Amino acid sequence: MRLPWRREDRDSSHDLLVVGLGNPGREYATTRHNVGFMVVDELARRHGGSWRGKFGAQLADIRIEGHKVALLKPETFMNLSGQAVAPAAAYFKLKPEAILVVHDESDLEVGRLQARLGGGSAGHNGIKSVAKSLGTPYFLRLRVGVGRPERGDRRPLADYVLAAFESHEDVETLVRRAADAVETLDAEGLDRAQVSINGRPPEP
């Protein structure tokens, strides 16, 4: 099956750019809003990637089953993420459909994953910024469910996503499954990968 981000038909050194969204700084490292950072960190760990500064971001190169993949963690803060993504995409000569953005999604329960191409931002400012900077919403997304405040929790959603996961929510398993999903997307393409990623319920 031909995958749209393979290099055979274009002048690029990489097959795919995987962007993890989050905020820089130790105080944000374990928050729900930073789950995108956590996922690309896990991918770098698995595949021996080393981080370096470039494009106003942290960048690492890895190989997944022989495919060359760039990992990116914007250091612009969430609302300006696109300012790092657009120059990286231009540098690697990648079309938007060869860019996969991994981000927290409060409209999905904790642990649920959803892969898709394009669509709206659902109020996510990082996604808005990436779409604006690329000039299109037509890029891949892996939405990682972080849930919403439970009944009786009066925190605004903005405060909720900037808080850490609860201990019972097993963030390590969530991050591992999301990293698995990125590898599946790279190997199989969106159409086939959606069947297993979107249809799988959160682990108990």
From TrEMBL:
Keywords of the record: Hydrolase, RNA-binding, tRNA-binding
Keyword Hydrolase: yes
Family annotation (PROSITE patterns): PEPT_TRNA_HYDROL_1, PEPT_TRNA_HYDROL_2
Any one Gene Ontology molecular-function term assigned to this protein's record: tRNA binding
InterPro entries assigned: Pept_tRNA_hydro, Pept_tRNA_hydro_CS, Pept_tRNA_hydro_sf
Enzyme Commission number(s) from the entry: 3.1.1.29
Family: Belongs to the PTH family.
Entry-linked PANTHER family: PEPTIDYL-TRNA HYDROLASE (PTHR17224:SF1)
NCBIfam families given in the database record: pth
Protein name, as recorded: peptidyl-tRNA hydrolase
Lineage summary: unclassified sequences, metagenomes, ecological metagenomes
